[in-house]
Amino acid sequence: MRFGRTLGICVACCLVAGCEEYPRKEAGKNLDVELVKTLNNIGLENAIVAQHALYPYHFVANSDGLNDLGRRDLGVLTSHFKEHPGPLTIRQGDAPAELYERRVAYVSQQLRQAGVEVSRMGLSDGMPGGTGMPSRRVVLILKEETENLIPATAGVQGVTAR
Q1: Could you tell me which CATH class the domain 19-131 is placed in?
Q2: Under 8 Å between Cβ of 70 and 55
Q3: Percentage of residues in the chain with pLDDT exceeding 70?
Q4: Residue 12: partners with Cβ closer than 8 Å, 6 or more residues away
């Protein structure tokens, strides 16, 4: 009987000691996960600021409102522009001119409401990440170049591949 009680107490102590070890390991794992998430978020935010651009996919389809991705990216840009105003590219893409103008007005309003001095910024439909010509002009240039290409085999006679 005495042996049974002693064995029961030892088993109970082992179970209690084993239960305490697991949360310590879990806490260390959670810390590692949060550190990795933080580093990834810093890298992502740096990329958003470096591009300083909102694309058509940041907006709800056929609307001037931002979707979840657009709100997140504009939030990152807003935090940056409060301290360091600069250029913001809002790409028109296939959006009609009237919708594009509403999108620009909406983004400007959101920036103002967040305390950004929009007058110190440049809003454009330029190339993301830097200066360049408006995307509409780039598309026209590429279209003209494509239409003016001469087929590679034109004017070459009697040439055979080896």
Answers
A1: alpha beta
A2: no
A3: 55
A4: none
The ranges assigned to domains in the chain are: 19-131
CA distance 31 to 29: 5
- pLDDT tens-digit series, residues 62-75: 999 999 999 999 99
With contact defined as beta carbons under 8 Å apart, do 90 and 124 qualify?
yes
DSSP collapsed to 3 states, 2-26: HHHHHHHHHHHHHHHHHHHHHHHHH
In order of 15, 81, 85, 123, the CA distances from 117 in angstroms are 62, 8, 7, 12
Which residue from 149, 74, 78 is spatially nearest to 114, judged by alpha carbons?
78
Does the structure show a pLDDT above 50 at 162? no
CA-CA distance, 96 to 56, in Å (whole number)?
11
For the chain, the DSSP string reads: -HHHHHHHHHHHHHHHHHHHHHHHHHHHHHHHHHHHHHHHHHHHHHHHHHH-EE-GGGB-TTSSSB-HHHHHHHHHHHHHHHHS--EEEE--TT--HHHHHHHHHHHHHHHHHTT--GGGSEEES--TTS----HHHHHHHHHHHHHTPPPTTTT--S----
